[in-house]
Amino acid sequence: MEKARGQATAATAGRPKYSVLRGLGVILREEGWRGFYRGHLTNLLHVAPAAAARFSSSFEAYRSVPSSPARAVCRVSVCRVVVC
């Protein structure tokens, strides 16, 4: 047990300690505020069409289900649940 503990500390002794705060500081210092937002547009262009397709398909599936005692009555700008 003692030998394994000594080997583990010897292996990590020369390495610097990393943390989230230190990483954020490096990004801020080297790239500025824009560094935090790098890649967001690419991700948005990737995710938005998939989210829109999922939303529209789930809405169409919801509309195709026959009426139940609790059904949604949707108007132009107001959706409410009506319990009969």
Describe the structure.
The chain is mainly alpha-helical. It has a domain at 39-84. 57% of the residues lie in helices and 12% in strands. A two-stranded antiparallel sheet has the order 1-2. A hairpin with a 4-residue loop joins strand 1 (70-74) and strand 2 (79-83). The longest helix is centred in the middle third of the chain and has 25 residues, at 40-64. The radius of gyration is 27 Å and the shape is elongated. The model has no long low-confidence stretch (mean pLDDT 76).
Features:
2 strands; 84 residues; 3 helices; two-stranded antiparallel sheet; mainly alpha; single chain; 57% helix
Largest sheet: 2 strands, antiparallel
What letter string, H or E per element, gives the SSE order?
A: HHHEE
Q: Give the overall pLDDT as a whole number.
A: 76
What is the count of helical runs?
Answer: 3
Percentage of residues in helical conformation: 55-70%
Query: What is the distance, rounded to the nearest whole angstrom, between the alpha carbons of the first and last residues?
Result: 69 Å
Neighbour order of strands in the largest sheet? 1-2
Low-confidence stretches: none
Helix/strand structural class:
mainly alpha
Q: What is the molecular shape?
A: elongated
User: Cα-atom Rg, whole angstroms?
Assistant: 27 Å
